[in-house]
Structure formats: C-alpha cells, structure tokens
TrEMBL record:
<dbReference type="Pfam" id="PF02870">
    <property type="entry name" value="Methyltransf_1N"/>
</dbReference>
<dbReference type="InterPro" id="IPR036631">
    <property type="entry name" value="MGMT_N_sf"/>
</dbReference>
<keyword id="KW-0227">DNA damage</keyword>
<comment type="function">
    <text>Involved in the cellular defense against the biological effects of O6-methylguanine (O6-MeG) and O4-methylthymine (O4-MeT) in DNA. Repairs the methylated nucleobase in DNA by stoichiometrically transferring the methyl group to a cysteine residue in the enzyme. This is a suicide reaction: the enzyme is irreversibly inactivated.</text>
</comment>
<dbReference type="InterPro" id="IPR035451">
    <property type="entry name" value="Ada-like_dom_sf"/>
</dbReference>
<dbReference type="Pfam" id="PF02805">
    <property type="entry name" value="Ada_Zn_binding"/>
</dbReference>
<keyword id="KW-0234">DNA repair</keyword>
<dbReference type="Pfam" id="PF01035">
    <property type="entry name" value="DNA_binding_1"/>
</dbReference>
<dbReference type="Pfam" id="PF12833">
    <property type="entry name" value="HTH_18"/>
</dbReference>
<dbReference type="InterPro" id="IPR023546">
    <property type="entry name" value="MGMT"/>
</dbReference>
<keyword id="KW-0489">Methyltransferase</keyword>
<keyword id="KW-0805">Transcription regulation</keyword>
<dbReference type="InterPro" id="IPR016221">
    <property type="entry name" value="Bifunct_regulatory_prot_Ada"/>
</dbReference>
<keyword id="KW-0808">Transferase</keyword>
<dbReference type="InterPro" id="IPR036217">
    <property type="entry name" value="MethylDNA_cys_MeTrfase_DNAb"/>
</dbReference>
<dbReference type="InterPro" id="IPR014048">
    <property type="entry name" value="MethylDNA_cys_MeTrfase_DNA-bd"/>
</dbReference>
<dbReference type="InterPro" id="IPR036388">
    <property type="entry name" value="WH-like_DNA-bd_sf"/>
</dbReference>
Length: 360
C-alpha cells in the first residue's frame, strides 16, 4: 500500500471493495497484483487475487511507475478518471435541481456514504462535495451579476436567504466583492478525464489559461496567484475554449493530434512568456534542454531561470514543458510527476514511429 498518499481509503475497506468487485470505488484506487505484475480497477471481473499479494495505489500512473502492466480485461488506463456510476447519478441530480441542499442524511438516503463522497471529490476535484456545491451556486450567481442582475436577485436566486451571508460567502470563495465582480473577468473551470488522471482546465474569454493535473501539489498556489495577481474570479462553468481543449486533449491521447489550436492566454512576466513561446516550438516527439532554450533566447547562462519559468508554465501538455529534459538526458522535474512525463514522451515517440512506418 502506498502509505504516502493520504487520499487512499483504509486498507481493510479497499480489500473488501476488491473482493466484492465494488464498482463504487472506480477511480478512487487501483489494485496491483505482485504475483502477476498486473494492475486493475476495483470492479475488475477477473479472478480476485489473495489480499496478501496486492498493493493499492491512488493513481494508475503510480502503478506504471512501480512496474505493473495494465489489465487487458478492465483496461484501467481507459477509466483512470471516469466518475463511478454513483457519482455520475449524483451529478445528474444536482444538474436537474441545482437549488437542492444536499445534507449527509439526504446522501445516505440515496445510498451514498458521505465520507466516501468526500474522498472522491477531494481526490478528483480538489474540494469536498459540499464546497463544490457552494462554489457552483456562487458561480451561477456570478453569471447573473455579469448579465446585469442585481446583487439581491443573484443572492436569493442562488438560495441565500441573507444578503450579508451571500456577500461573505461570495467574497470568501472568489476573493472579491459581488459589486467588483460585475467588472471582473470570470475564469471558468471544468474537470477533464484523461488516461493519466483527472485534469482541471480554466479559460476566460481570450483563451485557455490553465490546464493541470488535479493532484499537482502547486495547483492551489497557481489558482490563488491567478486570483490575487491577475484579478480573476474563478467559478465552475463551461465555454468554447474548454469544450475545444477537451476534444483536442482526447485526440492527443489517442495519438491523433500533434498540435493544439485552442486559443491561449498566458499572463506572466516578459521572460516567462518568452520561455513559454520557446516551449510551444518544441516539435512533437522531440526533446530539448534548459540550456538549449537559454541559448536560443540569447542568454546562455540563464539555464536555471529558464527552468524556473518552465516550472511556472500553467498549461501542461498544450505548452509542452514535458519535452524539456536534463542535459544528461534524464527526466528532470515535472509538476505532473515523472511517470506522467515518461508516459507522454513514450506516447509521442510511438505516434511518430507509426506515422513514419505508414509513410513507407
């Protein structure tokens, strides 16, 4: 068991779920069998292994990093971030009646264990279910304010009986008052599923601003910087840029896309933007080094500064910082984790090889 990941359920609970093939734990953890070298989803229909022969991991890429192969029957890489049926049903219920207040008692009545739901939302969305509900309601209120609705109307329409309570909740969630929010640029976010785990995408009217893996340790700091330094109001939502990146990301992981055409908006320092522009020019399936980028920018001694700017890139995969390696060929630091970096490089290399073979 990976003891470093505190998001994993208790060991006994995972053993029970594995033996009973409990599909409610899809995406919450993965089982890896030491005797076969294969890892599976909790609900895999293959013969259940002995508990003493199993390791548990929170993410599919951790299984790969530990040397396990994906099961051909349950295909865990394909479902690494897909919401289990019980979560999807709940999300559908929220969409159908967004004003409903979900208490723990109501969740239990629907057959949903609140603690299990909390763990799933924390792992896949970075917040609890109830925090997500509050943010969602406030996001709807933000949309109303941007459309010219009064603050009073936005407060009561989003389910708040107290105007002062609404103002306090709004400012706590968005770090801005409702009045100032009317003139701010909303940064809408949505969750995307990928073979390497869930990602969060954020976009405003000018383009995609952030695309990161949800378990990235620095994610909360990045979002806070966007709020504090650039005045964004962050709220759940969807727009054309988010729809486009979802489609293009799916094509990328299928090996059918080598370049992204979604519009980008990348606020940052002049030097950072120069580095990010160079990252965008690294050809698909190829790699470069920090030193090479520094030389291209006319600053051969700035390798460390290039590395820092590379680390501040908010657009994983789209602005391909994973294609930057160490001068010795090593896989240097990657915010999404080195197993993911290795996966992305292997994916691109394999796609290039297939294209070359088809050309002959």
């Amino acid at each position: 068991m990976n003891l470093q990941n505190t998001l994993l359920p208790p060991h006994a609970e995972m053993v029970r779920a594995m033996l009973e093939r409990d599909t409610a734990y899809e995406g919450v953890f993965f089982t890896a069998v030491k005797t076969t070298g294969i890892f599976c989803r909790p609900g895999c229909t293959a013969r259940s292994p002995k508990p003493e022969n199993v390791e548990f991991f929170a993410h599919a890429d951790e299984c790969l990093a530990a040397g396990y192969r994906a099961c051909l029957r349950c295909k865990p890489m394909d479902a690494a971030a897909i919401a289990p049926h019980w979560v999807q049903q709940l999300l559908n219920s929220v969409d159908a009646d967004p004003e409903q207040r979900w208490t723990d008692a109501q969740l239990i009545a629907e057959g949903i264990e609140p603690l299990k739901l909390r763990r799933w939302f924390k792992q896949h969305l970075g917040m609890t279910f109830h925090a997500w509900l509050r943010t969602r309601r406030l996001g709807m209120a933000l949309g109303g304010i941007k459309q010219g609705h009064s603050i009073d109307s936005a407060a009561y329409d989003s389910g708040y009986e107290s105007l002062s309570g609404f103002r306090d909740a709004f400012q706590k969630s968005f770090h801005i008052t409702p009045g100032r929010a009317a003139n701010s640029e909303p940064l809408l976010f949505t969750r995307l599923i990928t073979p390497l785990g869930p990602m969060i995408a954020m976009a405003e009217s000018r383009g995609l601003v952030l695309l990161e893996f949800l378990d990235q340790p620095s994610l909360s700091r990045e979002v806070q910087a966007l709020q504090n330094r650039f005045g964004y109001v962050v709220a759940p939502g969807h727009n054309g840029h988010l729809q486009q990146i979802e489609e293009q990301l799916s094509e990328y992981f299928a090996g059918n896309r080598t370049e992204f055409s979604v519009a980008l908006h990348m606020p940052g320092s002049e030097f950072s933007r120069q580095v990010w522009a160079e990252l965008a020019h690294i050809p698909y399936g190829q790699t470069t080094t920090y030193g090479a980028i520094a030389s291209t920018l006319g600053k051969p001694g700035a390798s460390r500064a290039v590395g820092l700017a590379n680390g501040h890139n908010r657009l994983s995969i789209v602005v391909p910082c994973h294609r930057v390696i160490g001068a010795d060929g090593s896989l240097t630091g990657y915010a999404g984790g080195q197993p993911r970096k290795a996966f992305l490089l292997r994916l691109e290399k394999a796609a290039v090889q297939i294209t070359e073979q088809l050309a002959f």
